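Technical appendix A lists one of the benchmark inputs used to test multi-chain prediction within the project. The record comprises four sequence entries:
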Amino acid sequence: MNGDKEQANASNMKILRLPTIKRLPTYLHILKRLEHEGNEYVSTTSLINELDFKPILVRKDLVLMGIPGKPRMGYCLKDLIEAIETFLGWNKTDEAFLVGAGALGSALLGHKPFEENGLKIIAGFDIDESRVGTIIHGKKIFHLSKLKDLVKRMGVKVAIVTVPWQAAQEVADVLVEAGIWGIWNFSMIKLKVPPEIVCHNENLSSGLAVFSVKLQKSREHLS
Amino acid sequence: MNGDKEQANASNMKILRLPTIKRLPTYLHILKRLEHEGNEYVSTTSLINELDFKPILVRKDLVLMGIPGKPRMGYCLKDLIEAIETFLGWNKTDEAFLVGAGALGSALLGHKPFEENGLKIIAGFDIDESRVGTIIHGKKIFHLSKLKDLVKRMGVKVAIVTVPWQAAQEVADVLVEAGIWGIWNFSMIKLKVPPEIVCHNENLSSGLAVFSVKLQKSREHLS
DNA sequence: TAGATTGTTAATCGATTAACAATC
DNA sequence: TAGATTGTTAATCGATTAACAATC
């Protein structure tokens, strides 16, 4: 192991395992449902009733949350939910700006789960004059030229990029210059940003690709 | 039914690698750009200029497409693009219905990349009377009760589910009963469907989780 | 030819699964 | 206690990376 990783592990006791992190929201959703239904404890065996995962996988994931389970009973729901939310940083709220108020951008402006999970979009930006000044899902759309000033005035640190790929790098440059340090990028291209900027790429087409291949396979099976 | 296709299918059968499939749309996007710029050949070394991946990974992925590259030149762009599109089934178009015309559903109704990549959404469905009868991004919204009849009349085989999780299983039951055999599920829950139905779950919260953890890490680093 | 690039085989790394001991 | 469930350690599996031979 290299020095970086050892230090990171030592400093925050958190091992960053992407596959585990991606499964956590699914667990969290089920756990909240179970709590809402009046349960106090949950075992992995009951959790997997609602999942496709193997029980040992769930157990391994939950161990990372640092909550001790009780043999024969399982985990205290309240503690486990809190631990997962803390692990993900979903107990605190980040304010975010969204750039690109097209079809996808508009959807994210109105997507409730984000706000419930620590990401509050407070305004949108676009360069299309027909969109500027409108209100989408309760959020005002400003002209992109206003972004830098508003970022500084409001201390916003996070941005969501939903512009067409042709415009994405230019928007990223503006964001970095404005002082944003976290970018959730829904455009198709890799953004060139300084190494200290957190940039996470989301790609809906990847999901479509997997779905398409699965459909094809099943079609072959039928014939 | 031609020889080429059978061969492609045969190799598909051998190796279905999810990580590779998820990377293919990213390659495809860059390749199309390069072709549009007038290039005829592409090498992995030039491809990775636009990517974060290691060249050997790209080469391994491309080998699976069954297109021979030429040492010193790389791959014929036209052939490679065609091979990837065939592999993904994006050269043929599936017609799809979308159920749940809320924020996310509306976005997908207007999301151009889907249509360009073999998935044409032809109508939406909802139970909210204020949405029924409206037209969103050029697509008419029908009442859910009309779905079964329209599926049968139009021979639609694929559906996208963007309803709140509380309604998702009920919608899935309707879809299966109507004769749909492919479901792209954007709701938070695992749908219970017969084994012959293709069901692919998409989870935007997984992406948010990864982004949140990355943001947290960088915050810790700063302090 | 010389050199760049492909494509194969082997090594490494990381994630999942299995086995089982610990515990309430 | 007996039995269910956790949590640890080892084994397996799959994906990425490295090394290098083949090729134009």
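The first helix of chain A runs from residue 3 to 12. Chain A has two domains: 2-88, 94-206. Comparable benchmark entries are summarised in Table A2.
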